[in-house]
Design a protein that fits this description.
Order of helices and strands: HHHEHHHEHHH
Distance between the termini: 30 Å
Number of strands: 2
Structural class: mainly alpha
Helix content: over 70%
Strand content: under 5%
Radius of gyration: 17 Å
Number of helices: 9
Shape: globular
Length: 189
């Protein structure tokens, strides 16, 4: 059986690398002035959105991890799956940064976001708590706002591939600012 701290350190390290790759994907401006920076506005938006979304994911994982009593092989493999899908995030972010109004690129971004979301929920299901209080912390996947988050992201994905390409990015931004971060702050220690 793996020690919980070792798995936690691995998750932290991989997410830190993924978040670092995000900034490395930012292009240099064509001209070194305000005009050059303004031309990269979708790149900066995509970077900031993705960075803070991954950061919020890490905060939820970190908060729930204190309640973990033991790590099973299922927990380890669910973490591997979660990190696998997360590793696609810089690629999907780069694609929407480069082609923000493209239906296919926003659709891919939405699929990656949903795969990460579902794999995180699967990971939470594998965690085991030691007391009722701890189990309540670990039951994040059963909280109502999580499912509103998922439905909103799915609607954003559908709108992106049919009518309005940026809908996926907007859905991720709205869920981050209206659901995820406020719920994290409301339940902070």
């Amino acid at each position: 059986m793996m020690e919980k701290d070792r798995l936690g350190a691995f998750i932290d390290a991989v997410l830190a690398i993924i978040m670092t790759i995000l900034v490395l994907e930012l292009p240099r401006p064509e001209t070194y002035d305000i005009t050059g920076l303004w031309a990269l506005r979708t790149n900066f938006f995509a970077y900031a959105l993705s960075f803070f979304w991954l950061g919020a994911m890490w905060v939820n994982i970190h908060k729930s991890y204190h309640a973990v009593e033991k790590i099973s092989q299922k927990t380890v493999w669910s973490a591997i799956i979660m990190l696998f899908f997360s590793s696609f995030y810089p690629y999907a972010t780069k694609l929407i940064a480069d082609a923000f109004w493209n239906k296919a690129m926003q659709g891919l971004y939405g699929v990656v976001v949903l795969l990460i979301t579902f794999s995180v929920l699967g990971y939470y299901k594998q965690l085991e708590g030691k007391t009722k209080e701890h189990k309540d912390i670990l039951m994040l996947h059963k909280q109502k706002w999580i499912w509103i988050d998922v439905i909103f992201k799915m609607c954003g994905l559908l709108l992106s591939i049919t009518l309005f390409p940026p809908a996926t990015s907007i859905a991720v931004l709205v869920t981050l600012l209206v659901l995820v971060i406020p719920n994290q702050l409301r339940h902070s220690d």
